[in-house]
């Protein structure tokens, strides 16, 4: 059985004992049905991992003993900041989950002209927490030890004004350029994707004014939850960690 990987926001240090959060405890006890003495791996999102062992349990409580520090996760070869128009239903959940698995460094949900999702402040805060939990679960599953940052929702114009000098790529099926023709972006890149229906022409022009280069992903028009994943995978292949060998392989 694969050793479970569990996220906790608590500081981690070898030799300590700590009580896991309710959700993690419920998963270990009720889903995985682990008992005292079972091994697991702990991480808190900063890139480090620790071997651990369940030292005590009760009906809803799990205490663990933190063991040795494991090899830290390397810094990302390419820091991708995904700005994505908020889509409806489970499409946004899917995009957050898979973008996390593919190694994005940050995600900002964007309000654009064609967004059909409009939530008040309280409901949006709940949605942000929901996306954060999706990212945590994706990290636990895929082996990431660094959590992507899920930023507060912003209007597109506000996001464009705060992204700084980092190179930007805009997915636009009307563009003529392709990823393969772009120069390497350096250590970081911004990726902008619209919601259902894409970005309007004025929004695309504003993105261009802020340094974004429009590219298309082949001859097909991809859905809003598919397009960023295809682009991220291609970017990781061209410039990121898809080029890196497995640990221990030279």
From TrEMBL:
E.C. number: 2.1.1.193
Alphabetized GO MF terms: rRNA (uridine-N3-)-methyltransferase activity
Keywords for the protein's UniProt record, in alphabetical order: Cytoplasm, Methyltransferase, rRNA processing, S-adenosyl-L-methionine, Transferase
Chain segments annotated as coiled-coil in the UniProt record: none
Domain Ribosomal RNA small subunit methyltransferase E methyltransferase intervals: 76-236
Segments forming domain Ribosomal RNA small subunit methyltransferase E PUA-like: 21-66
Main location: cytoplasm
Gene Ontology process terms (BP): rRNA base methylation
CDD domains: RsmE-like
Record's subcellular location: Cytoplasm
Pfam families found in the cross-reference section: Methyltrans_RNA (PF04452), PUA_4 (PF20260)
PANTHER family: 16S RRNA (URACIL(1498)-N(3))-METHYLTRANSFERASE (PTHR30027:SF3), RIBOSOMAL RNA SMALL SUBUNIT METHYLTRANSFERASE E (PTHR30027)
Family label: Belongs to the RNA methyltransferase RsmE family.
Protein name listed in UniProt: Ribosomal RNA small subunit methyltransferase E
Species whose genome carries this gene: Candidatus Sedimenticola endophacoides
């Amino acid at each position: 059985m694969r050793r479970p990987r569990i996220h906790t926001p608590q500081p981690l240090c070898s030799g300590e004992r700590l009580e896991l959060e309710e959700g993690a405890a419920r998963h270990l006890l009720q889903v995985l049905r682990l008992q005292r003495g079972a091994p697991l791996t702990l991480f808190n999102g900063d890139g480090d991992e620790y071997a651990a062992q369940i030292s005590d349990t009760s009906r809803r409580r799990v205490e663990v003993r933190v063991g040795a520090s494991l090899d830290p996760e390397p810094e990302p070869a390419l820091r991708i900041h995904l700005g994505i128009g908020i889509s409806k239903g489970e499409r946004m959940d899917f995009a957050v989950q898979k973008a996390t698995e593919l190694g994005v460094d940050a995600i900002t949900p964007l309000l654009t002209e064609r967004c059909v999702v409009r939530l008040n402040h309280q409901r949006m805060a709940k949605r942000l927490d929901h996306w954060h939990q999706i990212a945590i679960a994706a990290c636990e599953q895929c082996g990431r030890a660094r959590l992507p940052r899920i930023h507060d929702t912003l209007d597109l114009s506000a996001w464009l004004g705060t992204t700084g000098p980092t190179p930007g790529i805009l997915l636009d099926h009307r563009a003529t350029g392709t990823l393969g023709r772009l120069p390497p972006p350096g250590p970081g890149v911004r990726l902008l994707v619209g919601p259902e229906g894409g970005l309007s022409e004025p929004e695309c022009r504003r993105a261009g004014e802020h340094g974004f280069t429009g590219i298309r992903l082949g001859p097909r028009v991809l859905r809003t939850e598919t397009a960023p994943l295809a682009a991220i995978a291609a970017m990781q292949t061209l410039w990121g960690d898809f080029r890196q060998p497995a640990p221990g392989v030279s």
